[in-house]
Structure formats: structure tokens, C-alpha cells
Amino acid sequence: MTEDVPDRRYPHRHLLGIAGLGADEIESLLDLADTYVELNRRTEKKQSLLRGRTIINLFFESSTRTRTSFELAGKRLGADTINMSVDVSSIKKGETLLDTATTLNAMHPDVLVVRHPDSGAVMLLASKVNCAVINAGDGSHEHPTQALLDALTIRRRLGHIDGLTVAICGDIMHSRVARSNIHLLNTMGARVRAVAPPTLVPTGIERLGCEVFHDMREGLRDCDIVMMLRLQSERMRGSYLPSTREYFRFYGLDYDKLAAARPGALIMHPGPMNRGVEIDGTVADDITRSVILDQVELGVAVRMACLEILSANNPPAPETEVAR
Ligand code: NCD
How many angstroms is it from 175 CA to the middle of ligand 1? Predict the structure, then answer.
């Protein structure tokens, strides 16, 4: 591959969402991520592939696993990685999103990893900078690297994604994880079910490619994967539920409801988890069924793959003469 030809496996400048990506592109990212899993288990984890490259993690919303995971991914590939969170930045002083973006852009980063509470904000930012942008979650719109790591987890456990039935359960309305997963799973040939109370399902979600269920046992019947979602109260304007106790009774994953799924069905959760609200703590910790920690582990490998490919697609600008 020459420096100015985009990587044919994923010939895009940014990763803003899963919608619109082809199965071969998703597959390529997963294949590359797969090659990093073993490296991440070694004592010596550092590579020099992205030496000299700069990655800025720009988080306008709190995050534990996504931010750490991107930071580790960048460092393990040898890049200089810095984290900026809203608390310590000028955003608190009233700077606009676009001013922040253009300011950071002037420092010549190679990749900006951005999380923002508003849907569409990351796409807007990407149109104003000349480096690669990765969407680390924008409002309730998309969270592409989460869907990719979920897909890698499924693929490594079950060997394939096509033909599987995946039940995505809980707060679909406010979930960018659900949207990215619905796109990815459909593209890869899985059948998707959205299982939630009527107040937590956006109208028209079926058009993205899923069947809607309001009863957990019906929604889970014979499914291969149960993907639980957190109740995202920080995005809720008004009251969607009578109480979290009531919610757990009808929609919380416990062994009783899980019995409707295929024997051995895998349990997933993007985290952070609210035990006793959307999932019973014992079920979440059941290592024979739950792959929640695998998801976290594989997240680093997926982010390494994304950083590698996008850095390759955004080669540094040719050396310019500095007149001084
Ligand atoms: C998710 C997110 O931020 O969208 N978490 C994550 O990235 N692992 C889900 C959530 O916050 O519930």
C-alpha cells in the first residue's frame, strides 16, 4: 500500500457510524482486530506501528471503558495519546464544539476520538477538521466501535454472526449501542429483536431491521444472544417507567427469563451495568453464560484495528518548509 492510497479493506477517512458500511468492510476491521487479541495478552504489548502519530481522545461525556480502551489501543500501537475531558477543557469556559475542534486540529493530530452527548455532533466535527475522526458515541445515534467489539465477541465465541438471533433488551430508545448493533447485525446476516417496554422503543425502529417485542420471555425465545442495555436515565426527559423495581420484575434479566433463550445463549452488556435494574448480578457474573468481560477485552483489539486503518488512510501531510 502506498502512502496516499486508502486502505482497500476500509477505504474511508473516518469511522462515524456502522450505517452504510458493507459486510466486507466490517469483516476486515474484525479480521484485523482478531490479530491484536493475542498481542494484548502478552507481557510485552507495545508495537511501533503508529510511532510519531498523535491521537486525541476528546470526551464531552463521561466514560470509563471506551476512553481507557482507546487510550490503551493508541499506546500499544506506539502513538502519542492524550485525553481531554470536558471538565478540564475550555468547553467549561464557553468555547463552542467547533472552536474546540479547529483548535485541536491546528495541533496536527492524526486521529480525534470524540464522544458527545448530542446525536450528529461528531459528524459535524468531522466535517471541520482534516484528520481522521472516530465516533466514540454521539447522543443516542451511534457507537460504532461498541458494535464492532460486540461482533468480534460473538464471532470468536460462536464462529459466525449470520443466521443468529440476537435479542437487544432494555432502553432501546436512548441507546446508541442498540442502533449501531442493529445496523451491524443486519448487515452481517443476523436476525435482530428489540425487547423493551413500549415507552422505551422509538417509533419506526422496525425500519432499521428488527422485530419488536414487549414481553421478555417472548422476545428471548430461542435466541442465541441476549444483549442487555442500561437504563440511560441521563438522557430521559420525563418519566418512562413506574419504578426500577417494577422494571427489573418485567425486563430485568434473571435465570427465569433467560430460560426462554437457547440453552447456552450468551449474555452481553456494554457496561456500565446496573445490577438489580436491567440484570441480576449473579447472571452477569455467570462465567458459563456471560461474555461481558470478553467484550471489554476485545474492545482494545477493535480500537487498535480502527486506529491502524484510519491512520493509514490519513497519512500525515507532506513535509512543508518551515521558514525559520
Ligand atoms: C455505552 C455508551 O456510553 O453508549 N457504554 C459504553 O460505551 N460501553 C452504554 C451506556 O452508557 O449504557
Answer: 8
